[in-house]
Specification:
2 domains; single chain; five-stranded mixed sheet; 568 residues; alpha+beta; 25 strands
Length: 568
């Protein structure tokens, strides 16, 4: 097939017949990078320690903690980022549109037909550094990719049917990997290219114990040098790193800083103080309340405001009474004054309707004013109708239910109490059960969660946001939603090669899901990132893959002279 025909055949997820990395987009003139220094960061998950350093455990946070060490086949093309003169913010939790993807370990790739397969050519000369007691320095080869893929696919913790479209993976030669497909899947690039579990871990690390942080060793720009649970994660420069960056027509070897430190600071006030006093170079997640204060107390800080990439909601288990009745679920939504929450709780810093599709998902997101009246009704405060629906459902005096919430979130602790106060006005009493993050997460993954479950859930991508939360048996499905017809429709979406058709189908499915109210839908807040002016090569970018900031940190540098001039 010719390239034009193949693009139409595979839709927008088909990148090109032979796509190579390192594209040089029209960059603005930038300052010359300076090497050295340590980067101190309060990350987007400032109060959550690493869940596991082994992707075999399928931890959603794996890339966040190892993505500077373990590389992937694909990554976000940061040459198109705002910090490089581009127009892209790279703040999505796990979605990279096809035009923003570059090859990382993959140098090029091409689709072949009869049978349907993806042929990936790896870069030559990418090295695993020496790790004493674990492995000798050696080159990454195709067998590493095959080993890693087959290992995580066989994990008992793997998401159901995640890789069911891959028939076989094999090394054709030293630098060529072939994925043979049983069917097309529109998320192929996300699932094994830049996804949550896609970091390539060498067999030597697995043999030594991949879950032990002391054994972590990859081809990325940094090495994991130290880990203190609940305190810090320290990464040191990898002198064997292969990648470079072109700035003002000159190439610079990456990374620029000698060290990156994640500071795990559970107390929000302490985090803010650390930023204000210059102990942190960057704070990636700041609530609007703190942002307003910091702008006054530390006016030199630089800022990026973004709509959160996670939806906030109270999940209602539809497999248990009273939430098996749609009238009850709709009543719960109408009982809460969501517009008042935006006005009084968020001080206007939130959007009424931005989940399960994110407004940044062009073509997939359909705004509230374009939704049917039955959907719009769920976002209007109508306690009288809520009471009427409860009477119709057989609960004239309301009911009491338990709701679990993570004590790790100050925002949720405040917000769930506000929601409870609204519900009580229609006779529904919520017993709030705060839980530490580990227990909170375990309750959902083991499906032992309470009938009410208050949480944020990342949008991930236009398809995954529906699949993971509403397809039968999925891990991240707190309402326990199960609809065989929806499952079939989503399978058809994944196999649809034409993106415009996928968009239309997902708009329809999303509307139907919202209308059935498995969640008490809540506003999506705006949040902030702040950094000091001495941090260069940065404009608020957060992810170059699924929760993966490593490549971004590799492209930041510190102006030590400016830092000293500013008194820090």
């Amino acid at each position: 097939m010719q390239a034009k025909t193949l693009r139409r055949f595979f839709g927008s997820t088909f990148l090109s017949l032979m796509l190579t990395a390192g594209s040089a987009w029209g960059q603005a003139t930038m300052e010359t990078p300076k090497y050295g220094g340590a980067l101190e960061i309060s990350t987007v998950y400032a109060n959550i320690s690493a869940l596991s350093f082994d992707n075999y455990d399928w931890p959603w946070k794996h890339n966040h903690d190892t993505g500077a060490v373990y590389e992937q086949l694909l990554a976000g093309d940061l040459s198109q980022a705002k910090s490089r003169g581009g127009s892209n913010g790279f703040t999505s939790d796990a979605y990279i549109p096809s035009h923003l993807i570059r090859g990382e370990l993959a140098e090029k790739w091409e689709w072949l037909d009869n049978p349907l397969r993806l042929k990936i050519t790896l870069r030559n000369g990418v090295m695993f550094p020496e790790k004493q007691g674990v492995m000798a320095k050696r080159e990454l080869v195709a067998d590493d990719v095959v080993f890693n893929f087959k290992r995580i696919a066989a994990s008992p913790k793997a998401v159901a049917k995640y890789f069911d479209f891959v028939k076989d993976v094999r090394a054709e030669d030293r630098y060529t990997v072939v994925f043979e497909m049983s069917k097309f899947n529109a998320e192929w690039d996300y699932r094994f290219g830049y996804g949550y579990y896609s970091g390539v871990i060498p067999k030597e690390v697995v043999d030594a114990g991949a879950a032990n942080w002391k054994n972590v060793n990859g081809t990325g720009p940094f090495k994991l040098a130290d880990y203190v649970q609940g305190s810090s994660q320290t990464y040191e420069k990898n002198p064997d790193y292969w990648d470079k960056e072109k700035i003002n027509d000159k190439e610079f070897k990456l990374p620029y800083v000698d060290k990156v430190v994640y500071r795990i600071i559970k107390d929000e006030t302490t985090r803010v103080t650390a930023l204000r006093t210059g102990k942190l170079d960057i704070m990636e997640y700041i609530r609007w309340q703190d942002a307003e204060q910091l702008k006054k107390s530390a006016p030199d800080l630089k800022w990026n405001r973004r709509l959160a990439t996670a939806g906030t909601f109270l999940s209602m288990r539809v497999d248990q009474k009273p939430f098996d009745d749609i009238r009850v679920r709709r009543a719960m939504n109408m009982a809460v004054n969501k517009e008042e929450i935006i006005k009084t709780y968020y001080n206007g810093n939130a959007e009424l309707f931005a989940y399960p599709q994110h407004p940044d998902y062009t073509g997939y997101f359909q705004p509230l004013n374009e939704q049917p009246a039955s959907v719009q009704e769920l976002f209007k405060y109508d306690p009288a109708k809520a009471k009427k629906l409860l009477v119709e459902a057989g609960y004239p005096n309301g009911f009491t239910f338990k709701a679990q919430v993570c004590s790790c979130s100050t925002d949720h602790a405040d917000l769930i109490s506000l929601v409870a106060a609204y519900l009580e006005q229609v006779g529904v009493k919520m017993e709030i059960q705060p839980m530490e993050y580990g227990a909170f997460l375990s309750a959902m993954t083991t499906r032992s969660l309470a009938i009410g479950y208050f949480m944020d859930n990342g949008h991930t991508s236009p398809t995954t946001t529906i699949r993971k939360s509403f397809m039968t048996g999925q891990t991240w499905n707190p309402s326990q939603w199960s609809d065989p017809k929806l499952d079939e429709r989503m399978e058809a979406v994944y196999q649809e090669r034409d993106e415009s058709r996928r968009q239309a189908a997902l708009r329809t499915i999303t509307t139907e899901i919202v209308d059935k109210a498995p969640y008490l839908w809540l506003p999506t807040p705006y949040v902030y990132t702040a950094w000091w002016p001495w941090l260069k090569g940065y404009a608020g970018e957060l992810r170059a893959g699924a929760e993966r900031p490593g490549p971004i940190y590799a492209r930041m540098w510190i102006d030590q002279d400016l830092k000293r001039k500013m008194g820090y």
